[in-house]
Amino acid sequence: MSCIDALYIFDSFSTTPLLQYEWRRVSTPPDVLISAYNSSPTPRSSLLHIPTTSPPTLLFNITHNNLIFLSPVTSEVEPLLVLEFLHKVVDVLEDYFSTPLLPGKIEGNYEVVAQLLAEMCDDGYPFTTEPNALRDLVVPPSLMGKIFGSVTGLPNTHLSSNVASSSNSNSLSAVPWRRSNVRHTNNELYVDIIEVVTATIAPSGRPLWARASGTVAMTSKISGVPDLLLTLSGAGGGYGRTMNTIKFPVFHPCVRITRWKERPGELSFVPPDGKFVLASYEVDLLPNPTFSTSSSKSPQLHLPVAVEIKKSLGEYGSEFEVRVMTNPLPGGQNNNSSPSSPFPRAIGNRGPGSPAFGGSSNNPAVEDVTITIPLAPRIKTLVNTKTSRGEWHYEKGTVSWKIPMSGGANAAAGMATFRTGIALKAPYDESSDEETDEEDGEDAVSDSGDYGDGSKPVFPKVTTKKKEEAQDARLQRRKAKMEAMMPRSILVGFVVKGWLASGVKVDSLQVVHGKGLVEGVKPYKGVKYATKAGGVEIRC
Amino acid sequence: MESLARISNMLETARDLTLEAAQSASAAGRRKDLLGLGPKALTVQETRKLLNSRMDREVLEGLKRVMESLFRGSDCSEFFPDVIKNVASPILEIKKLVYIYLLRYAESEPDLALLSINTIQKSLTDQNPLIRAMAIRVMSGIRVPVISQIVALAIKKCVTDMSPYVRKSAALAIPKCYRLDPGTLGLLTENLGTLLGDKSCFVVGAAVMAFLEVCPEKLDLVHKHYKGLCKMLVEMDEWGQLAVVNLLTIYARKCFPQVKHHGKEGMYVMDPDLELFLEKCKLLLHSRNSAVITSIAKAFHHLSPPNSTTYLVHITGPLVSLLRCPPDIAHMSLINIVSISLSHPSLFASYATHFLIQPSLEPSHLWKLKMEMQTLMFPYLKKPLRSLILTELEYFAKGWDKELVRESVRAIGRCAQTESAAGRERVAKRCLGVLLRLVTEDSAVGGAVVVAESLTVIRHIIQSYAARKQRGGEEYANMVVIKLARALDTTMHPQARASIIWLVGEFAGGGNGGMGNIAADTLRILAKGFADESESVRGMIVLLAAKVYVAYLNRRKERREKEKAARGSGDEGSGEEDDDDEEDEELSTHPIPLLYTYLLHLLSRYDTSYDLRDRARLYRSLLSDPQSTQLASLLLQAPKPAPEARSPSERVLKDGWVVGSASLALGVLEGEAGGGNGGVRGYVGLPVWVRKGEEVGREAREVGEVVIGRVGDTGGIVRGTGVAGGVEAVKAVNGNGSGGTGGGKEEPKSLEDWLASEGSSGDDESEEEEEEDGEEEDEEGDDEEEDDEEEDKDKEEEEEEEEEEDEEEDASGDEKTSMLPRSSS
């Protein structure tokens, strides 16, 4: 049976562990592990096999905010168990020390971390991992500071035993995921739905596939044991529609699945206290994929940012241009702040560390537009680069270009261009500069001319590149070479607040039954949406 | 599911994060400054003083210091006596920290540690369940073998504790105790039996974990709890679910005979008890824990009847949805998906677009697996999707990234092998078209890689075509060869040229009909530029010349025999001399012998490479003697077996790793290494199905069915999940809901109430401290830990087919084929 031997946390800049915690006897010291980790090729697999130790070690690793979490295992184990556990550890630490998790927070709270880790895993088996349950068992640092921070030593005993008794009597609260005796002076409920859009768009502008993966995060600060009902609906509204739109839902254990199955879209649950992820789902943004190339009506995909690429420009065909426009977002979502909406827009009034959305504007605004252009490794520098807006820099073979989006979703203001030429490395450089050279003599190939005659490009090109009848074969060859060096894809990044790509909406959020909640108290409710581009790739 | 940490990263803007980082950094600095208590600022004496202080606050401060250096990895054993002194502290925090310290150092200071045992033992009777639980955990965790009996007794006591939390801790103490002293097994299994039948699902989950470690073979203990476990499955926490699914998967293999098909339509009869388990598993499909999803996939994959996907179809969606998890989890899930689809390739066909890749965003180990999925499911896709995948692969084959280029060309080759009857030719033609374009266009930056890889793949395809010999396969192969021969004019890369020449020799040299002329013609053209070619190409040209010449000789012989036969009917024995004269004349005038002579006797004879000269000499002597023509043609025209490009992970399937295991993951990650052939240390495959008639009777599982759904136990909130018990529970909750507003009648008894009412009686019970009876009843099972079923893996068969083929080719004198670009794997 599987078990986790130890956990080591490293700062990614040093090789001495920030924290080492062993549940079982470990024979391999952490410095061996970190050096094995550092010497493994990137991108790293989350499971590394170190055969040189005795016994051979499986090293599981995840990184979070420059922190490296390593967990060695020496016998057969389910990899996902260890990885899930590591993610849980990160979650819990963030829950205790607030986001972002920084080395300093661990260093300042070793005693809390120690208690947490002792509680989360016993003898290598995950024990109590639910953040709320842990709150009952381990006193958060702020509270501990209050108790022991006082100068007088005497009343401590009294106070702490108080805390101890209050926590221990409820150590197993009736609901495993909700801590006991929750009391809040302000009762609040916030729903944040975040969708991450991934898509690939062919050079013709036809989306090949597009998906949004959504996550429903909640912050619940309600006294007692409330029973909540959250109703989601798809773009068209209505339950049937929801089920069609939302695919592969995954729920927090608190959600009653029968209810969802009977009436899709309804999430009935007793929430944990504080921040948690209630559910996640996936939406296919191209609901009826017709992949035949002949199809005249290509599926519609509404992205807030449109990109146009022109390649092989200039005298030698060595330049390219990227043009970015913001699209007006499809309507329907905008009215979520209209009076008919069940929620007043939540403005402000949220503690530090809570998401700060542009709640006041009715129009969803596109922000943080970033264009990333991976370039061929043989490109040395960019020449004659011009941008109409924003700033760019070229590093490690990729151009990243940030476009400020002032003026909201104003289409006219949202236009920006980037044009640059490329300069190649000298041919003799190339063999030495390329990482893995298994074949020799490739310059012979890349120099051969006659590119592409008689061959059809697979994707219809956006730009109609006309081959001039060039007399100079060298120019021709040079152009062909440049053509091969043109960017092949562009990544678009953006964040839109107040808009969901899938059109999923929160219809209502009700406290169905609140045990322990004072009669007549209406919790303050707020809903926020955000869409983020996770990987929108535009081929060219 | 996305973890909360990642979500909050998404929510906060980058600016906020940096701001807070800066703040916390400065705050940390300030705090250290103010207190003057940097980790190094405190001497050992000062720390000791703090630890020995009477003030709890100072003790705690001292413990903090110790913890700090402990977790940074420095040795703190010098504080042992000072820390242990505080073991009796009434303050929970101090107690906990002392316990953590104790667990770390007890082994090195067993005598001192023993001094604390008494105090800990007293804590076992504390009225606070938290303290009781901590006590049992720490007692079992102290690795001092002397106390094993005391621990065993403590476990026995805690197994009947009022608090589920204590019972859960006791369950996990069992494996620790077992490791301490295997002699206690008898007592421990008894306790395990009790815990497996516990009413609280949290306890049961932990008990199953312990069971799997201590005595996984004692399935007798499980029989009567089987149904209870199935029913409780939904209610447990995720780790418990994981353990139970693992246990019941083993159980099912050992206790239910394998389900066989009856009749054609996949009808089968499944034991209702097994069905119960699998049905309950279905309820977990919405779990947020990827490990749970995977363990269900494992259960479905290894327990469903052969070739049946009745259950597997339910798991596909959830498995695919794991791909939206963080990359590490997505990676592990992909490995499992690949291993499942190796045996059920059509299963994931409806999710094809989920496996399209974005190499600029994904790490290579992710897109490689996705690409493999594309090719695996390729034969089962509809036409538009197939063409989409091919287009994608072609796009990537033109990229800069060598690895990507190589993988995508290989993937195209695998797609070309599609065996589905409909459109097979079309697919292969399309693939060949794509590859030919890649070879001839020669534009890609990946240049050499593309060409080399494509030609290998083309060779594979042509060879399998030619081998098929039906529906014009051979003709088509010839057509491709002609195209390739034409491409020689433009292809510059020596390796590519060499490959093409080999192909021409192999498929056009056979000399049936007009094809012989192609090879001869190619040879003629190549002979002109012989001196300018690179060595590898020259070698191939010489080989081509030999092949063409052999073909010519054979043709001539045939003709001669025909003539002879024709003539023989008329007049025998005479005219042989005439023939020979004719022959000689032909040999000196026919272009093929002329070319051959020119190449082998002139050009290669004075070549700079002695290897080439040697080889030319070999062919010359072989072919000079008409007697050995037959031998020569055997040598040069030996039929080559059609190679098959295997899916990269296919060998994993043969090894039969269990889905979801680390051994499987390593097998996919590292190919051959795979953590050794026996898998990762401690890997035990699933047991083979019990034979029909040897299984345990159904009655065994009927006894002692656990009644669950008793709302009182869990305190009134039960997740409605459609279980029979669950439905009742939901009703109860609903009733409770309406009742709550009406004045709270019939409140379910919550744990607080339980504790309030029973706390005192628990105290009384726990007085019986030293029971010395259980000590003798052990000694039965020492070495039962492992029953390794070592699966013999036929190592010999694992060599790639390609290698065999190469050997053959080498044997047949085609030395140069090995220079056809092969994978560097």
Q: Which characteristics define this entry?
A:
heterodimer, A: 540 residues, alpha+beta, Beta-Lactamase, Immunoglobulin-like, nine-stranded mixed β-sheet, five-stranded antiparallel β-sheet, 12 helices, 23 strands, 21% helix, B: 825 residues, mainly alpha, two-stranded antiparallel ribbon, 2 strands, 0% strand
Structural class of chain A, by secondary structure, is: alpha+beta
The second-level CATH architecture of the largest domain in chain A is Sandwich
Specify the biggest β-sheet of chain A. Answer: 9 strands, mixed
The DSSP helix count of chain B reads: 39
Helix content of chain A: 10-25%
In quaternary terms, these chains amount to heterodimer
Radius of gyration of chain A: 28 Å
Q: What portion of the residues of chain A fall into strands of 2 or more residues? A: 25-35%
Domain MHD (chain A): 186-539
Protein name (chain A): Clathrin adaptor, mu subunit
Biased composition (Acidic residues) (chain A): 430-445
Family (chain A): Belongs to the adaptor complexes medium subunit family.
Descriptive report:
In chain A, the strands form five sheets. Chain A has a nine-stranded mixed β-sheet with strand order 11-13-9-8-23-21-16-19-18. A five-stranded antiparallel β-sheet of chain A has the order 2-1-5-4-3, with helices on both faces. Chain A has a four-stranded antiparallel β-sheet with strand order 14-15-20-17, with helices on one face. Chain A has 540 residues and is α+β, with helices and mostly antiparallel strands. Chain A folds into four domains: 6-129, Beta-Lactamase, CATH 3.30.450; 188-291 and 501-539, Mu homology domain, subdomain B (Immunoglobulin-like); 305-426 and 485-496, Mu homology domain, subdomain B (Immunoglobulin-like); 429-448 and 465-476, no CATH class. Chain A has helices spanning 30-39, 79-97, 103-108, 110-120, 131-137, 141-149, 155-168, 239-245, 257-262, 427-433, 443-446, 473-485, and strands at residues 6-11, 17-22, 47-50, 57-64, 67-73, 121-122, 125-126, 188-201, 207-221, 225-233, 246-251, 266-269, 274-284, 305-313, 319-326, 365-374, 379-387, 391-395, 398-403, 416-424, 489-497, 505-515, 524-539. Chain A is built from twelve helices and 23 strands. With 825 residues, chain B is mainly alpha-helical. Among the domains of chain B are: 216-325, no CATH class; 476-564 and 583-637. Chain B is elongated, with a radius of gyration of 38 Å. In chain B, strands 1-2 form a two-stranded antiparallel ribbon. Chain B starts with a helix and ends in a 14-residue tail after the last helix. Mean pLDDT of chain B is 74; it is low at 30-39, 704-752 and 758-825. Helices cover 63% and strands 0% of the residues of chain B. Classes of the chains: A alpha+beta (540), B mainly alpha (825). At the A-B interface, strand 2, strand 4, helix 2, helix 3 and helix 4 of A face helix 1, helix 2, helix 4, helix 6 and helix 8 of B.
